[in-house]
Amino acid sequence: MGARAFIRATTTGVRSVWTNAPGTPDMPRASHDLVAWSLMRIAFFTNNYTPFVGGVPVAIESLAKSLRRLGHRVFIFAPDYDEPAPEDPDVFRTLSIKHFNQTGFSLPLPLALEVQMQFAELEAEVVHVHHPFILGQTGMHLAQAHDLPVVFTYHTQYERYTHYLPFGERMVADLAISLSARFANCCDAIIAPSTDMRNTLLERGVEAPIHVIPTGVDVVRFRGGNPGWLRARYGLPAGDPLVVFVSRLAREKNVGFILEAFGHVAVSHAGARLVMVGSGDEEEALRRQAQDMGLGARVTFAGTLTGEELVSAYRAADVFVFASTSETQGLVVLEAMAAGAPVVAMDAPGVRDVVRTGENGFLVPEGDAGGFAARILEVLGDGALRARLSAGALRTARSMSIENTAIRVQDLYAQVIRNPRVGAKEHFILLQELLDYQFKRLAEGIDELMP
Asked: Whole-angstrom Cα distance, residue 441 to residue 78?
């Protein structure tokens, strides 16, 4: 008997004991109370994966590794890229349009016959989709064909990424909100990385069970690195405090605000330097902005860093800054905390579950560049405060480790295998959804024209 049949036939299922980490009563932690029969075969479907650099690929890869360490088999269906990727027999690359719309994204082609044949041989027991479109739809259709439960992680506020598509942004944003909510209602369970995203999904009419499970971080990895590497690599003086930012340099990440706020910092603190780690479509515009502000000598564009170099960049930070308002959680914020960096961040959805003012950093109201700069200066100017926030950041990271996340996710898999959602589940056919959307907009237009 396979794990799926056994779990469904067992009344007790997978047992877990939850304990709270000190100082973080809202972030439960599970014990490793597993039994051998709970081992599962899990299929991931994602539109972004390594070697593409971004928060979602990192989150998916980390979760897959942790589930494998627990003994589960995880298969991953992902796009193909020009860049080489590590060989993994359980990663299936799908035919893709590379550098879609002149970006770093690869656009996978859904429902390829090869994917269907590969999936049929895996004997998967649960499907976990990480996007509602393209390969996410493929995963859902294959799950329905094989009578398998579907878990969907809502990683992304899709309406914030419409500028990557060659269509009208407002129309695409409306569609993204509508279709992702409809897709969610076709699933057995939804994982929201933060309470903000859970509330947003409820407001959008999602009726499938929503579970708040934060994207975990590899705490051990981010305690490594070399704190002196960043200064040595870019010739930064030892006595100058470092304000570090890590993200794709993209429009939705609100990077220009970071430069605006640092302009205030630079006026008040002659030695402070800003290090921008990442690359993207906005890099040249941001370089021009820094030059126009007279910050050329104070801002270092370090490019994309990975592995030990990225860890070393986090470890070098006297304060980590983040201003995106498009996150479902903000994984780089948690990575910075795992490296012991205090955080100053925009008070925005997703980040609120991670940053706690006065405990591990500060949240600043959206758009307040002066207030943002004031908090940075406060951390840089007070060693005792910086040490206290650093200790709080480490506590937060430990409470949200990838090990705890993996245990909670595998318990959810067992739950949906044992008790799949029935009755209220909807069917998602993209063409039908698009036609329904167009008909609704047409009807609204006629109503507006009627006297």
From this structure: 34
